[in-house]
Design brief:
The termini are far apart. By secondary structure, the protein is an all-alpha fold. Helix content is about 70%, strand content about 0%.
């Protein structure tokens, strides 16, 4: 806490990168497996992000 803010930010970024470094690949593999599972079960109801975002914003009263 005695470091200047800029140095604390840099340190925090380095710490987060060191933790996340090995998990990104396994996260991607897990996500792809889930997409394949849903597709195999007939869940092909994907929608564009813009449409999903609009619906969420409408539900929470932001549009």
């Amino acid at each position: 806490m005695q470091l200047p803010e800029r140095e604390r930010r840099e340190l925090a970024e380095e710490l987060l990168e060191s933790v996340d470094a090995g998990t990104e690949e396994s996260w991607e593999e897990s996500w792809l497996a889930e997409v394949r599972r849903r597709s195999a079960q007939g869940h092909d109801d994907a929608r564009p992000w813009s449409e999903v975002k609009e619906g969420v914003l409408r539900r929470i009263g932001k549009t």
